[in-house]
Structure formats: structure tokens, C-alpha cells
Amino acid sequence: MKQTSKNIAIIGSGLVGSLLAIYLKRLGHTITVFDRRPDIRNIEFSGRSINLAMSNRGWQSLAEVGIEDEIKKIAIPLDKRAMHVTDKPIYFQKYGKEGEAIWSISRGVLNKKMIDLAEEAGVEFRFDEKVWNVNLPEATLFTGETEKGEWTEYNYDIIFGCDGAFSRVRHKMQRRSRFDYSQNFIDVGYKELSIPANEDGTHKLDKNSFHIWPRGKFMLIAMPNIDGSFTCTLFMPFEGDVSFESIQTKEQAKDFFKTYFPNVRKEIENLTEDFFNNPTSAMVTMKCYPWTYWDKVALVGDSAHAIVPFYGQGMNAGFEDIFVLKEKIEKYGDDWEAVFKEYQEERKPNADAIAELSYRNFVEMSSKTADPKFLLQKKIEKHFASLHPDKWIPAYSRVTFSNRPYSEALEMGDAQEAIMQKVLEMPNIADKWDSAEVEQKILSLI
Ligand code: FAD
Questions:
Q1: Together in a domain, 29 and 110
Q2: Can you tell me which residues the record assigns to a coiled coil (predicted)?
Q3: Contacts from 86-91 at CB under 8 Å and sequence distance 24+?
């Protein structure tokens, strides 16, 4: 349906805000993007490269505006996990079917590219301009140097809040009656570390793998960058026996890496240095509702739903919001109230589902990987899936390699869990986990 051109402001030039700007500009609107940060294209590269995993949902949203192929050129496909388990040689686990992969991409490179593309399309960016307040019914925003200083007022037809997990726009919506809001921090934090490239620019570990060093209460992961380096993330409790709090000196950090990550021994100097140079950050699940205000204001991306990163889906989910928003715009045209209503009604259950799945993955990784019953369950599931790949699609594949709703992945995952609980009750199950009897039992329960 055709739309009348609107004067639209987007608050936040992050991954979600810049992609939304491209979408809306192509639909014929006048777009101004505000960001409190300076233009990341002019900031000198800090030497640290933070990367993300892009999967089907993200690619689908980039393909819609024709930038998928261009972005793939700066990404590395990872078709398997490389498991670095203590006292065992490295082993590999294929992610999905042949050809299925997640893609490692630099957050900064991707963001810069999307700002470039948005600018080429005619979007105006106003960097170094922090939004302090929004008048929701009037779609007016106020920017300025400080909260107490003088503000500049801008008036728009519509405002999108793409200003991340601690959104100012949402903060304003929170003050209204009947606005639901919750925020939950987990007791685990993360720190980004790096493994530099070999002298000839090649990668020190297999470059087409997502590397994981699971260590019970904590874990290290690593994803490759196109310059030959790896970005590692250390997830660890803030407090306790082995925690960020328990590592205070260089010696303690060296001991920690030597003890728990012997196969990165050569990198220890570098990891130790990063450990003290880089910040320790917290992770939060944030839920809220409604996401929109009349036909004037809408939240998109982390501002509407921030999740813990254990499924690698935060950005993917934000990009999918934009894809769905466009479907609604095509359906309802100028009726922005209908666009916003259906957008939030469709996306909210899916955002809640990926929040739940991500949190469960965190619990699974941190407390269940040492539980023999849980390990037996995983063994049975894997064996059955190898016999009947069409009948047992793991939740991970439904989330990562399909564009079916997240809520469906959660629902199917719950149904599979109920089946497995029945299977685990079978007498002597540990001895016959790969038997035809167990296979038949699962088939009868599906
Ligand atoms: P943000 O990236 O937070 O951008 C918000 C923007 O708004 C910023 O530019 C900010 O400067 C600006 N802003 C904020 N307030 C104001 C204001 N008042 N005025 C003006 N501007 C403002 N997702 C994946 O899909 N795959 C992964 O592998 C993955 N890994 C992750 C690993 C970690 C450790 C973490 C923490 C997250 C990970 N994510 C991943 C999630 C992903 O990073 C986020 O979902 C994504 O960055 C959200 O984008 P956004 O544009 O909504 O918000």
C-alpha cells in the first residue's frame, strides 16, 4: 500500500537504527538519525575488534534492502563449534545441515557500512547529539549537552527509539500508566579479550569454527575476524571462588589462563594484558510493553527487548523487528496506528520467547553441563536426531537456521523436553540410550 512521506526521527545510529533508516528512506520518508556518540566512521580504530554472530534472520533483513552480499564479503562463515574440553583433544560439532553456518562479523565494520549506505540513500545523521527528552503525543524530541543545560527542540511526525537497552525513549514511556517493565541482571559478567593473528596474517585457530572452552561456572568463546585475529569473550561470575573479583593481579590472571586454558598458553601475555585493560560488563534481560505510543512513537531492537547473549540473537531479533515492521507498513500504508499495533502484537511473544531461550541457554551452559542426567539426555537427542533429522530439529537450529517465529522454537523445544523426560524414566535408560526400543518410544511420543 502506498504511503504519504513522513518526517521521521530515529534515535540511535547503532545496528538497528541505521538499518531501520535505510528501510524507511527507501520507502520514501525523510529521515534524521540522532546519536549521542560521535560518528564511528571518524573514530580512530581502537585496535579491539568486537564481533557478533549473524544468522538467518539477520541475513533475511539485510537481503530485503539488497545489502546481504556486500556484508557477506566482510564476514566469516562458521559451520561448526570447536570444543576445547579439559583433558581431551579439540573436537568439532557441525552446527546444522550441509551449508548451514553462522557468520562472524565485526560490529564496528558492519555499523560503519550501514551508516554509509544510509547516508548514500539520503538519510541525515546528527552525531554528538544526545536526546534527553521526548514529548510522546507531539513526537517532539529535545537534545542538548547536559540534562540541566539548554535544549534544542525538534518536531517530527514519528519517532523511533532505537537507543538500546537503556533507552531514553522507553524511559519516557515507562512513566505512563499501564506500562509493563522488568529488568534482570545475571550474576555473570563478560570481558572481551583478543588473540592476534600469526605474523603472516593467518588465524591461530581454525577460522571456520566458533571456539568454546566450557569450564562449568565460566567459559571462554572465540570468533574469528577477517584480519586473522580472534575476539574472545570470557563469561564468568562477578563474585565467588573463580570470578572476576578473585583475579586481581597479573600473576593471578596468568595462573588462571594457564590452569584452565592450556591450549592458549602462547597467548597468555596478551590475554593477561587485555584482562586488565578491558572493562568487565554486565548482562541484562529487559522486557517491556507496549512498545508503541499511538501512531507517534515506536521502540525497535534492544530498546524494546534486551536479552542475554547466549543464543547470539539480540541483533538478529532487532533486524527481524524491522523486517516485520516493513511487512506491516506494506499492509496498512498510511495507517501508522494499525502498523504499530500489529507490529508490537506480533513481535512481543517472539521477543519474550528468544529472551527465555537465551536465558535457558545460560543456565544450561553454567549449571547443567556437568549433570550426568542432562548429558545422557543430550546423547539420546543427538542419536535420535541423526536417525530422524526431519522429526527432531533442535531448538538451536529452529532459532538460528530458520525464520520461523521464535515462539514456535520455544514451544517445540518444550514439547521435545516433555518427551525426553518420559524417555529418561525408562528403566536402565543409561545402558540402552541408542537402542531401537528408545527410538520407538520417542517415535510413539512425537
Ligand atoms: P545499540 O547497539 O545499543 O545502539 C543504541 C544506539 O543508541 C547507540 O549508538 C547509542 O549511542 C545511541 N543512544 C543511546 N541513548 C541515546 C540518546 N539518549 N540519545 C541519542 N542516542 C542514543 N546479537 C547477535 O545477534 N549476535 C551475537 O553474536 C551477539 N553477541 C553479543 C555479545 C554480547 C557480549 C552482547 C552484550 C550482545 C550481543 N548481541 C548479539 C546483541 C547485540 O549486540 C544487540 O542486540 C544489538 O547491538 C542491539 O542494537 P541496537 O541498535 O538496538 O542497540
A1: yes
A2: none
A3: 86/215, 86/260, 90/263
